[in-house]
Structure formats: structure tokens, C-alpha cells
Design brief:
The structure holds two protein chains of two kinds. Chain A is of the alpha+beta class. Chain A folds into two domains: 71 residues, no CATH class; 251 residues, 2-Layer Sandwich (Alpha-Beta Plaits), CATH 3.30.70.20. Chain A has twelve helices and 14 strands. In chain A, β7 and β8 form a beta hairpin. In chain A, α3 packs across α6 and α4 runs parallel beside α6. Chain A is globular and about 60 Å long. In chain B, 71% of the residues lie in helices and 0% in strands. The chains are: A alpha+beta, B mainly alpha. At the A-B interface, α8, α9 and β9 of A face α8 of B.
Chain lengths: 365, 402
């Protein structure tokens, strides 16, 4: 597209001046969030003054500061019910337990939010594929914000950016099929997976973005209104929240991976091993249904940064995007940015034939 | 002493005793438990990361074996149906052996499901009342339900029959026959629901076909009796219990008939998918021909097809079908062919390419293979013991003495 102005960002030598992008940290929002600390969470903690046996054991152990503390809190965790069906007291207890365990494990004060969905809110997302430069800052910011496992052994990313190349339909290539010379790497494992997608590939490693003759299509959980993953879950550990976010109760998941099979967008990730989350990188501002640290053997996925958006903040990927390709808001509010995009731009959804009614929209200007 | 307790005691004492061959066989099977224990320890300690599974191919060998064994469990009905619906006497006499096979196969299914789960410690989350059983929404919940009921039907039916033989009392047909007939219909349901488990996911186009249940049932009713024929011939050779030629001939006829249907359905699917291949055919094309050098599964597909086709042609010839030296070999070939067809030929390519079109190959790790072999070995130990007990009762070696 001649004449289109897009910022060129060198990935290998990052400029230092660009504060909004380069110094993006999940903790940036924490000071702001402190003020916003949820009323309901405080209520939960107050309510948990009437302690149950399980949490009493945990607390007693915590006070003595022995190693048994962790064992006792996780022991109680083993017997908790499904979050959605818990009473307010039980929720408060579960949250309290988790806060203690996480604080101990990560050596800092970790909060677990339990804020419920707000009435009259249905979250929606819009992504301008014309603007995306494929820098994958959203991917990195998401990992930092949402406490995904990192490192070579198990690297979990909720967002994948598909790179598509121009020129696939030129005269010389018409008979080749597409992609002609991709996908010959054999083997690999969960986190050094090999192979290449039909329409675009997501393992590209450019020196600079945007790459010439390429365009990009980031994907993540589409937060479907008719989510096939929810339907297949044998224990209802994954469900749709009233504000439209599809969440997972990590403590209830049995790891059967039916939902991974059912998702048409390949949006779900499995903790094949114990997640690797370094203490210093851990984001202590968490939500029970969102970015709290996960355990091995459970499924996870994008939650639109539930820990942020339920307090009026934007998802990390929206905040970090250097070209403003990502828009977020309340679909029920006619003045929200996302509604304005839907009203004015050329909008489409991915894989409409799957009949899942995503709340993640793509658009071009 | 209460005759029920006496039966249990006599039964246990009988199955513990055996000749050298019996102990050698059980000992051989028990050897597989050592690597199995190691593999299970690794998987429980470090998680599923010790397997070859990935986010791209997240269902592998464990679930493939599960699906195949549901078929074997259902295949036991190839004894029950002729025995009770057609009153076919040669099979009627040995029908209880089919129930024992069903019981052992369902136990193996459970072992494989446990191996597949990321959090086996949370299995109780599925138990109604204390957990949440997403019924009727989740197909997996349906599958658990039909399998558990099938297990109970066969366990109760089989041991009730044996107990009555033990005491020498006549069967209460008002109790026993309904059990048998429900179990016959139920056998169809377990493999049907298992087919629905994977074919109700449009995100996986290769599985999203309406003929999946009937394909499952036709292969199950070929693999099941193929295994039963082998077992019957082993029993004939090694025990005092005689199984008539007619029983074996009936089963080999069922294998041929069901294999014909299975091969026909495979052919129909290949033609439908490949005449004008679309995105829907990507999995099958990858399976049959590979994709730009990614061809792990290609030899398995053609090998399995060859085994099924060759077995079918050979069994069509009556003289070969009645040659009891060749028959078990052909049956073994068919059994293995169908095992490959369910695993490498269906379950694994269903995830390749992924919903976003990525081709990732899957190879099981040694730990997965250890765990699978161990599960099979445990299953065969259970099957051997159950069959020995059943034969002992039928022979009158285990008898009620007042």
C-alpha cells in the first residue's frame, strides 16, 4: 500500500526513547489498580473472618512459617468446589488461601481478585489488520501481564500473530499450491513445535517489522458467544461469564483437553509441565478467573485481561500496541470505541462458518 | 458358609493356581508393569510434558487406545448376539467368556483415560453430587455414563451366570435375560457415543463426518471377534475346555461381514473427501500422502489398509477360514490393522493440521509407550484371570460343596 505510513521498529536493537512501548510493564498499572482494588474483594476478605477448618489449618501453618504451610494450603485447595458454584464465603476462603500460597511462593504480596461481572457490560474487541505491523509486542505484554509459563521448555503464548505474504497469487505461483515450500521440519515438542500454517505462519523471526510484502493477522481467544469449548467440558470448569468472557477455573480443570479439541481458533493452551514463572517477573495483581498462576495439567486461555477490564482498564495487548490496531470496549455501550468501529469500519469475524459468534472482530479502515 | 462368600473364596483359590504355562504367561505380562510404574511416576511427577503431545496434537496414543478398546469391549456382543438372539448353541455355551472380555476391556479403557488426563487426582470432579457431571451437555459425560453402565451390566451378568453354575441352580431368566438383552443394545451405544465424542467437533474436520459411529461399530465388530477367535483357540489348546468349531466359524464369518462394511465405508470416505479435496480433507490427505515431506503417518495408513484388505480377502476363502493354524495369524493381522486404523489412522491425523492450519507431527515418547504397554499388560492379566475363573466354573472345577 504505497503512501501508507507505518512506524518501523527494529526488534533486535530496541530504541530506548519510546517509553510507552519499551517500558511497558504489567506493574505499571498496579499503582493505578491499587486505588481500584475491588470493593468486593475486600468484602470477601472481611467475610472470611469466619474461618473454616481448612483455612484455619492453613493460617496456623502460615503463622508458624513452616514448609507445611504450603502443603496445608494446597491440601485444602484439593477439596474446594467449582468456583462458579461456591458461596461468597467459600469464594473468599479460596481467594484467601490462594493469596497466601502465592505470596509465599513468589516472595511478594500477591492479590487475587474475585470481582464479578458488571451488569450491562459485554466485552468486545476489534483489531485493525491493516495497521498491525507484526511486532508481537502484544504477545510479550500478554505473557508478562498474565503470568504465562516462559522459557524454552514450556513457553505459553495466548496470542499468535499469523504472517501472510503477498505475492502468493502471482502468475508464476498460481500452479504451485500454497505454501509450496513450507512445513518440512519434522518432530519437535510442545514448545518447539514445528511446521507452518496453511494461510500464514506464526514462527517468523524478522530483524525488523513490518516485513516487506507481509501482512499480519493476530489471533487469540475469540470469546465466542456460543463457545464450543464450554459445551464439551465434562466438569463445567470452563464457562462464559455474564460479561461475555470465557473463563477457566484452573482448580477445577481435570486436564482432559476436550476444549482444546473443540476450539476452532486454536486458542487454548495446556500446561504440559509445571509452569515456569520466575518470582521477579510474576505479576502480583491477579484475578481468580484470570492471570493467577496456574498449575501443571490444566488448560488456560485469553480472558481479555479480566483482572484489568473489570476495573475499567484496557487489556495489556491494547495498551501496548504501538500502532493502535487494537480496540476494546463494552459492546452494549453505543459510545464505546469498539461499537464505533463496528458501526463505521469494514468488519468481519474469523471462521464465521464455525457458528460460534465471536466477540473478537477484525476490521480495515 | 454363605454360598456367595464361598464362591468368592473358591474362585480366588482357583485362579491363583495354575500350571507353569499359566504362571509364565502372567509373569511375562507382569514384566511390563515395571516400566509402566516408572512411566506413571514420571508423568505424575512432571506432568504430561513427558509425553510427545503438544498444544497442536493434544490427543495421542492414550486416547487412541481408549477408542480402540471401547470397540473391543463392544465387540464382545458378537458372542452375545448370536447366542441369545439367534439361540446359537455353540456360542450360547461360552457366552459368559464374552462378558469377561467386555469387563477386562472396559477396565483397560479406564486405565487409558486416566493416563490421558492432565489431572487424574481431580477425577472426582466428574462424580455427580460431590462434583459436576456436565450431562447431557458434554459428550464425554455421556461416554463415561454408557461405559460405566456397560461395565456393570457385564460384571453383574457374567458373575451371576457363573455363580448359578457354581451352585448348580437354574438361572432366573426373568433377571438374567433382560440383563443380557440390555447389554447387547448397550454394546452398540458405547462405541456410538465414543464416535460422537470426536465427531461432534466441527473444529476438527477430519472427524466431523456422519458415518463415524457406523465405521466405529463395523471395525469394532471385526476387531472384537478377531481377538475372541484367538482367545478361543488358545483356550482349546491349553485347557480342558472345548469350544466347538462351529462357534469359531460363526465368529470368523462375523469378522468377514463386518470387515466388508468397514472397508466399504473407508472407501466411501476416501472417494468423498478426495474427489474434490477441500480444507475438510486436509487431515485425510496428510494421513494418506503426507504433506511436503511430513509423512510420519503414511506407512501406518497403508500398512493398516493392507492388513485389513489382505485379512478380509483371506477370510473370504472358506478353506482358509477353517484352517485353525492360519486363522489366528490372520485374526492377529486384522486386530492390529484396526488398532492402527483407530490410532494412527484416525485419532492422530484428526489434529493435523490444527484448526489454524499448522502441520505438527506427533511421535509418542518412550514413557507413553511404557504406559500403553503396561495398561495392555494389566488388561491382559485381568482378562486371563477372569477367563480362567470362568472356564473353571464352566468345567465344574469350581463347584459348590455343602
Amino acid at each position: 500500500m504505497p503512501g501508507r505510513k507505518i512506524p518501523v521498529v527494529n526488534i533486535s536493537e530496541r530504541p530506548t526513547g519510546d517509553s510507552s512501548v519499551e517500558h511497558w510493564q504489567p506493574s505499571n498499572g498496579q499503582q493505578a489498580a491499587d486505588g481500584l482494588e475491588s470493593e468486593s474483594r475486600r468484602k470477601f476478605i472481611k467475610k472470611s473472618a469466619g474461618l473454616s477448618t481448612a483455612s484455619l489449618i492453613g493460617t496456623a501453618a502460615l503463622l508458624t512459617g513452616t514448609d507445611d504451610a504450603k502443603a496445608n494450603t494446597s491440601w485444602a485447595e484439593h477439596f474446594q468446589g467449582n468456583y462458579r458454584l461456591m458461596s461468597d464465603e467459600e469464594k473468599a476462603e479460596a481467594i484467601d488461601r490462594l493469596e497466601k500460597r502465592y505470596s509465599m511462593e513468589y516472595g511478594k504480596k500477591v492479590t487475587v481478585d474475585g470481582t464479578d461481572a458488571e451488569e450491562g457490560v459485554l466485552f468486545g474487541y476489534a483489531l485493525n489488520i491493516q495497521k498491525c505491523i507484526g511486532c508481537r509486542r502484544c504477545v510479550k505484554a500478554c505473557v508478562q501481564e498474565n503470568n504465562q509459563s516462559r522459557g524454552d521448555e514450556q513457553e505459553i503464548e495466548w496470542i499468535r500473530v499469523l504472517k501472510m505474504e503477498k505475492g502468493e497469487f502471482t502468475q508464476e505461483k498460481l500452479q504451485d499450491g500454497y505454501p509450496a515450500d513450507f512445513g518440512i521440519e519434522v518432530g519437535g515438542n510442545a514448545y518447539s513445535a514445528t511446521g507452518v500454517v496453511l494461510e500464514g505462519e506464526h514462527y517468523y523471526q524478522p530483524d525488523k517489522v513490518p516485513e516487506e510484502d507481509s501482512h499480519f493477522m493476530p489471533i487469540a481467544c475469540m470469546q465466542c458467544e456460543k463457545p464450543p469449548c464450554v459445551k464439551v467440558c465434562p466438569v463445567r470448569t470452563t464457562y462464559r461469564e455474564p460479561d461475555g468472557v470465557v473463563v477457566v477455573d484452573y482448580n477445577w480443570c481435570i486436564g482432559c483437553r476436550m476444549c482444546i479439541g473443540a476450539c476452532p481458533y486454536w486458542a487454548r493452551r495446556f500446561n504440559w509441565g509445571e509452569p515456569n514463572l520466575p518470582r521477579e517477573e510474576m505479576n502480583p495483581k491477579t484475578h481468580y478467573l484470570g492471570n493467577r498462576p496456574r498449575m501443571k495439567g490444566v488448560v488456560e486461555k485469553c480472558t481479555f485481561c479480566i483482572q484489568r477490564v473489570r476495573h475499567g482498564r484496557l487489556p495489556a495487548c491494547v495498551e501496548v500496541c504501538p500502532v493502535g490496531a487494537r480496540k476494546f470496549g463494552n459492546l452494549l455501550d453505543p459510545d464505546s470505541e469498539v461499537r464505533r468501529v463496528l458501526a463505521r469500519k469494514r468488519v468481519f469475524r474469523l471462521k464465521v462458518e464455525a457458528n460460534t459468534y465471536p466477540k473478537f472482530f477484525y476490521y480495515v479502515d | 458358609m454363605n454360598p456367595v462368600i464361598k464362591f468368592a473364596v473358591d474362585y480366588v483359590l482357583y485362579v491363583l493356581k495354575g500350571d507353569a504355562k499359566y504362571y509364565l504367561w502372567l509373569g511375562f505380562l507382569a514384566l511390563f508393569i515395571i516400566p509402566w510404574a516408572y512411566g506413571n511416576y514420571q508423568q505424575l511427577a512432571y506432568g504430561m510434558i513427558v509425553t510427545g503431545l503438544t498444544d497442536q496434537v493434544s490427543w495421542g496414543l492414550y486416547l487412541a487406545n481408549f477408542i480402540f478398546l471401547v470397540g473391543v469391549a463392544a465387540g464382545a456382543v458378537t458372542i452375545m448376539f448370536p447366542a441369545y438372539v439367534y439361540q446359537y448353541e455353540p456360542l450360547h455355551k461360552v457366552a459368559v467368556l464374552g462378558e469377561m472380555l467386555a469387563v477386562a476391556a472396559v477396565i483397560m479403557c479406564i486405565l487409558f483415560v486416566l493416563a490421558h488426563m492432565g489431572r487424574p487426582d481431580r477425577l472426582w470432579h466428574m462424580i455427580p453430587v460431590i462434583g459436576i457431571f456436565n450431562f447431557p451437555g458434554s459428550m464425554l459425560a455421556w461416554d463415561v455414563l454408557v461405559l460405566v453402565i456397560y461395565f456393570i451390566l457385564n460384571l453383574v451378568g457374567g458373575f451371576y451366570y457363573l455363580y448359578k453354575k457354581y451352585t448348580g441352580q437354574p438361572l432366573n431368566n426373568k433377571f438374567y435375560l433382560p440383563l443380557v438383552f440390555i447389554s447387547i443394545v448397550w454394546a452398540l451405544s458405547i462405541h456410538t457415543v465414543t464416535a460422537f465424542l470426536i465427531n461432534t467437533m466441527p473444529a476438527r474436520p477430519m472427524w466431523h463426518v456422519g458415518m463415524m459411529p457406523i465405521r466405529f461399530i463395523s471395525t469394532a465388530f471385526a476387531a472384537g471377534p478377531a481377538l475372541i477367535i484367538i482367545i478361543f483357540l488358545i483356550i482349546r489348546k491349553n485347557t480342558a475346555f472345548w469350544i466347538e468349531d462351529k462357534a469359531i466359524d460363526m465368529l470368523s464369518t462375523i469378522v468377514v461381514a463386518c470387515l466388508s462394511i468397514a472397508l466399504f465405508l473407508t472407501l466411501s470416505e476416501v472417494v468423498t473427501e478426495l474427489y474434490h479435496p477441500t480444507e475438510h480433507s486436509a487431515g485425510l490427505e496428510y494421513l494418506m500422502f503426507g504433506y511436503h515431506g511430513l509423512n510420519n503417518l503414511v506407512p501406518w495408513f497403508w500398512g493398516s489398509l493392507f492388513a485389513m484388505l489382505a485379512g478380509w480377502i483371506l477370510l473370504l476363502i472358506p478353506s482358509i477360514r477353517k484352517n485353525y493354524t492360519l486363522l489366528p495369524l490372520i485374526c492377529a493381522m486384522i486386530f492390529l490393522g484396526i488398532w492402527v486404523e483407530k490410532g494412527m489412522g484416525l485419532l492422530i491425523p484428526g489434529s493435523i493440521p490444527t484448526p489454524i492450519g499448522e502441520f505438527t507431527q506427533y511421535s509418542p515418547t518412550l514413557i507413553e509407550i511404557f504406559n500403553c504397554l503396561g495398561n495392555w499388560a494389566i488388561g491382559f492379566i485381568i482378562l486371563t484371570v477372569l477367563l480362567k475363573g470362568a472356564i473353571g466354573t464352566l468345567l465344574g472345577d469350581i463347584r459348590y460343596a455343602k
